[in-house]
Amino acid sequence: MVDDPDLCTVYEDDGVTWLIQYVDAADFSGLAPVTQVYGLALTRDGKVLLGVDARGRCTLLGGTVEAGESFAECLQREMLEEANYRVLCMAPIGYQRIDCGDNVSYQVRYACLVEPAGAFTGDADVRAINPIVRILEIERDDVLSHWNWGKKSALMLTRATEWYQAVHQSTCEQSASSSLLLMELTRSSFHGAPPSRLGAAWTWPARLGSTACRDPSSFALPSRARGGGPSPRGPTRATCRTRSS
């Protein structure tokens, strides 16, 4: 069943019809098999991190789940391999249901906050068929002019922005209330003045990469309906895999 035609893509490949349906969801429980994990990555200053592949196309960063990996571990590894960025925290925003006729598989999408781990030196995965050759940090207002898969891209960007703003607000509030000695904190500990005096010019505190922020569920958006999605069928032939947005 197709709930929203604007979130679906149908195409033929070697005699097989593929139906790819994007589902807006904040919960991945019950999805199996999940073959790939991708992140709509946001930097501390709110820009979107995209990769440019060998074909010159802008794409989200991520890839195939390896044996024994959790979804979070997969995204953390792929972000380092493809862009040399660290994932600080993350939250589910949606998934793709890929139906190849006799087999259904899933690719999940996270919003994530990232920071550089070092200089970009190219895709570290030598096995990559279509490697990342360049990375871009793009203003959110300009992202869809580089990476536009229609309503799907717009919806993912909206969810990631909502999450980013929730993380920003929560971090500000925690920073302001966690210590009675706030006024004694030095400017350097906040990369500038305390948040209560900076307003819109406030920047992320260095301690953002704390254990709490690294918990993938730390900043899930409670106001969103938690989607479940169609019941998966076990694979009856090789799992369909495709790198898509």
From TrEMBL:
Q: Which Pfam families match?
A: NUDIX
Q: Which InterPro entries match?
A: NUDIX_hydrolase-like_dom_sf, NUDIX_hydrolase_CS, NUDIX_hydrolase_dom
Q: Which PROSITE patterns match?
A: NUDIX, NUDIX_BOX
The keyword GTP-binding is assigned to this record: no
Q: Where is this region: Disordered?
A: 217-245
Q: What CDD domains does UniProt report for this protein, alphabetically?
A: NUDIX_Hydrolase
Instruction: Report the domain of life of the source organism.
Output: Eukaryota
Its keywords, alphabetically, are: Hydrolase
All copies of the Nudix hydrolase domain together span: 33-171
One example of the protein's molecular function in GO is:
hydrolase activity
Protein name per Swiss-Prot or TrEMBL? Nudix hydrolase domain-containing protein
Species this protein is from: Saprolegnia diclina (strain VS20)
